[in-house]
Amino acid sequence: MKVKALRNFTDLKENKRRVENEVFEVTEERFKEINGADYGELVEDVSESTDGDNGENGENENFPKHTGGGWYELSNGEKIKGKDEAEAAEKALEK
């Protein structure tokens, strides 16, 4: 199932830092395990919403992704320093 991170957290089983709005695959068991932690709800199921317009719009909202230290990754994989510059570059990619 596809899930979306509701806030930043460290996925200890995958040894990976998950960032807000990141979409990734988990099993239903893992979904329950992540949300069963003491930190509250960390992910939401987006399996159905990835089809049609909702998924397309949601995908665009994921970019630019903050990768740390003021750097952002665009939907084409390019990395840019500065939030404003990254947002402008992502908008240019959408055209």
Structural class call reads alpha+beta
Stretches where pLDDT is under 50 for at least 5 consecutive residues are 50-60
Rg, alpha carbons: 14 Å
Number of strands: 8
Q: Helicity range of the residues?
A: 25-40%
Order of strands in the sheet with most strands: 4-1-5
Mean pLDDT: 83
The helix tally amounts to 3
DSSP strand content: 25-35%
> What is the element string, with H for helices and E for strands?
EEEEHEHEEEH
Please tell me what the overall shape is.
elongated
Cα distance spanning the termini? 31 Å
Sheet with the most strands, sense and barrel status: 3 strands, antiparallel
Taken together, the total number of domains comes to: 2
Keywords: Coiled coil
What is the fold's blueprint, element by element?
Layout: E1 2-5, E2 9-11, E3 16-18, E4 23-25, H1 28-35, E5 43-45, H2 52-61, E6 65-68, E7 71-73, E8 79-81, H3 83-94
Antiparallel strand pairs: 1-4, 1-5, 2-3, 6-7, 7-8
What does this structure look like?
This protein has 95 residues and is of the alpha+beta class. The chain folds into 2 domains: 1-62; 63-95. The chain has helices at residues 28-35, 52-61, 83-94; strands at 2-5, 9-11, 16-18, 23-25, 43-45, 65-68, 71-73, 79-81. The strands form 3 sheets. The chain has a 3-stranded antiparallel sheet, with helices on one face. It has a 3-stranded antiparallel sheet with strand order 6-7-8, covered by helices on one side. A hairpin with a 2-residue loop joins β6 (65-68) and β7 (71-73). The longest helix is centred in the last third of the chain and has 12 residues, at 83-94. Mean pLDDT is 83; it is low at 50-60. Residues 45-59 have a biased composition (Acidic residues). Residues 2-29 form a coiled coil. Residues 76-95 have a biased composition (Basic and acidic residues).
